[in-house]
Structure formats: structure tokens, C-alpha cells
Amino acid sequence: MAKKSEAVLEGFMEGPLNFPPTYKFDVGTHTYDTSAKKRKPAWTDRILWRLRRTGSPVPSHNSALQWGLTSWLGGATRVSQHYYHSHMGFTISDHKPVSALFSLHFPFKVNLPLVTLEVEKEWTKFSDATAKLTVVHGFQRSSWDWVGLYKVGFKHHKDYAAYVWAKSEHSTQVMFPEEDLPRDPGEYILGYYSNNTNSIVGVTEPFQVHAALTQLHSDSYQISDVSSEDDSTLVLLAPISRSPSMCASVCVCVCV
Asked: What is the domain range of residue 166?
């Protein structure tokens, strides 16, 4: 009813409801509500989906590849739902869970990374925290692109341990500031995030960030007391949030 009468679900799709209502059950049973309210059974638990076109319009002089990249979740992308059903055997809730299986068919395939990043295999000193960039011909960079440092196993492009802007279209190297380096040693990778395509378009092989580097980083964050005749103390406050955004970051220095 909401899909037909309200724009809030415009564009969303749903497979046929070929299973019994999933709500409301007496907990621990397969019996619909026997309380005084006697709620009517309802298909409360649902899975809907839609395709969202990403990216911004591309000038006509760019290649067909660029157009495909900026519309990679639209156009000829197809979604197939293979099943959609409830799991009526569960009784730990007054709902029955539902699940669905989908497959996606994309209109094109990129065999080579759009941005190649070269990085040291091991980071043992601050000068190692650099990456050289090589961009394929015809790929349009944005002033809002950035290179993220990710712990191996990350799930989302915002799961970075640190990032650095790659603002200039002609820049071929980025360097992570000393204060932004991670405090945890381990395996990391670098990923180039493209604002135009809303995705990571190039990653490195895993490399090791050594404990010696992270220890130096941790030591640099220690608060140091400077004694003087007037007993003044200079406290450096690290930024609380360094998330990529179009808002300026502010670093505060407080004198007491």
C-alpha cells in the first residue's frame, strides 16, 4: 500500500510473498498472537531493493569507460532474485526471519586497476609512508579523491585507519603525515577512493606496518609538561575526527 501511495519507496522492488505472514507469533511457538490484543498476522519482515545510479555527469570529451564507471550501479546492471522465503522453524522471537538470494550482472568489467599505487613492502620509518600513483589514460580524477590506509579485512571504504587527500589531478605521489599513522602494527593495504565513481578504484598488495613505527607514533602523542617560571603548560590536542568531507578539519592548540 505504501509503495502505491507514497514516494518514500519509489523505485524499490520486491519479490512475490509466497510465504505465510511472519508476525505476530507467541514466543516459543508457531501460533499467531493469542494475547488479549489478538493482532492480525502480517508480513512485517520484508526485503526490498533498488538500483542507485552513482557518480556525476561526465563531460562528452571523456571516454566511454568513464561514462560506464560513473553509472556502474545503473544502466544495464541487472538484479536477479533466486529465492525469497521465511524461516518458520525459529521460535525465539515473535517474528519469523526472512532471507533472499540475489545475483548481480554488471554491464562491463575493468581488468586493470584505474589507479595503481606503488608502496614500500614494509613501513618501518615515517618516510616509508608514501605511495606513487599511476592513473590510466582517460580516467578523470577529482579534487575530492583520497588514498586510505586500511587494515587487511576491512569491509567499507570508510573503514580506514588513516587517509590523505589526493587533490591535484597531476599529483603522482602522496605522503601520510606522521600524526595520522596507525598505532596498531599489522598488515595494511592502500586504496584509492574516487569521488566520481563513489568507489575504490585501485588497491595495493598487503604490506607490513611494523611495531617500531607505531611505537614512535604513540610516543609522539604523549602529553608533555613544560616547566617554566610561570608554570605554564602547552597541551597539543589531536583532532578527534579526520573523516574525509567537504568541511575543513581544525587542529586546536591550547595554552594554559
From this structure: 115-221
The candidate with the shortest Cα–Cα distance to 49, out of 1, 98, 15, is: 15
Return the C-alpha torsion angle 195, 199, 202, 204, nearest 10.
110
- The CATH number of the domain holding residue 63 is 3.60.10.10
Whether pTM > 0.70 for this model: the answer is no
Judgement on whether residues 186 and 83 belong to the same structural domain of the protein = no
Angle at CA 133, nearest 5°, toward 69 and 126?
Answer: 135
Residue 240 falls inside a structural domain: no
256 lies in some domain: no
Residue 245, domain member (yes or no): no
Digit-by-digit pLDDT tens for the chain (256 residues) are 887 888 888 888 999 999 999 999 999 999 999 999 999 999 999 999 988 765 444 443 344 454 555 454 445 678 999 999 999 999 999 999 999 999 988 776 667 788 999 999 999 888 899 999 999 888 888 889 999 999 999 989 999 999 999 977 677 899 998 888 888 899 999 999 998 888 899 999 999 998 767 665 556 555 444 444 444 333 333 333 445 755 444 444 444 4
Q: Give the side-chain half-sphere CA count within 13 A for 92.
A: 3
